[in-house]
Amino acid sequence: MDKPIVEIIGAGLAGCEAAWQAARLGAHVRLYEMKPKKYTPAHHCEGFAELVCSNSLRSDSVSNAIGLLKEEMRRMGSLIMEAADATKVPAGSALAVDRKLFSDYITEKIKKHPDIEVIEEERRSAGDIYTVIATGPLTSDPMADYIRDELGCDDLHFFDAAAPIVDFSSINMEVAFFASRYDKGDADYINCPMSKEQYEAFYEALIAAKEAELKQFDKESQKAPNVFEGCMPVEVMAKRGRDTLLFGPLKPVGLVDPRTGREAYAVVQLRKENIEGTMFNLVGFQTHLTFEEQRRVFRMIPGLEEAQFLRYGVMHRNTYLNSPGLLDERYAMKKHPNIFFAGQMTGVEGYIESAGSGFVAGVNAALAALGKEPMIFDTKTMIGAMAAYVSHGGVSSSFQPMNANFGIIEPLGYKVKGGKTAKNEALAARSLDIISEIDLFK
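Below the sequence we write its predicted structure tokens.
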């Protein structure tokens, strides 16, 4: 008997996860990817699951919401988590990866799977068979037009920004120092300390710096873009107030300058980009400044006076749906049940959240193709809570992209002694007990 076919459009994190899970369940997967024939403005590598912003997948502790989502996915056989664990670089209590090795790992696994057929072709629409659209926040115009016009989806935009990367050998380590905040974990971050005078000079230069011109991103509108809080450009954040950065990416607490034995007034942190430690990115420094201004202003940071920029920060369009009412808890369209969505387009925000949506969509597309009952993940789990948020929205009438957080997960129903951490640990333990009972692949 021939295997039922599931089509996946897009080989980013969500698409690769969806393809992997659908194939595991017994479907034959056709994975469409327009690279290397065509690239988005933010993509540069031929490989799948390319990380275009930070190389950090954030906290790996289950008392943190994203750490819980990672562990749920690990236990269910996530390809993305397998790759992340295999290609991680030191990053304290966070999970960060060597982005090239990460992409290479996933690309090889996908291409070698006997039930995944990779087709290098740009798809501009979905067919009549079960399909997962995982074209990402930089969906091409033809596919975006199809989604809006043919599928009847509201097409919304916001902008995402990436941080610069510098050459480690160009960092002045007589000024900068290795440490992790509060000495938790290994000393994996480079820290550039600032005095009050240095910070104020940097701040004034930053808010006055010239921003790059935006390209036209919408044929029907010249309106200013919205910027999602999680990837807000550092210069936009700075303009909210002189001290805003001191409570954000330049927060000095828990970082003692070995030269003085005291905390500095402000601290800029840099995190490893690759296993060799030859590249470091400026943490929280997503930016839309011109390249010339990035070079001028960021070299005002102590220790980066002679920094060599391997990649400047960039800003690009993201597209997401007004998903509540359009999608159900499987990430399937209510009006077109054979079409699923996955990734940031659904309104999840973040690498792992995108992969998690791909997991749910891939599983359910395969189950539907196989004629089996759907898998609705419990809202007591983070992966299920994310699906519920996407399909129903929050308390606000305006749907906004959402990271994994304990605020969307079903409450415990009882009080826990020990504060927030103890409560989160109890929520995580409950979730992982539920995940352990899932037998989709057993």
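The domain at 165-313 is CATH 2.40.30 (Elongation Factor Tu (Ef-tu); domain 3).
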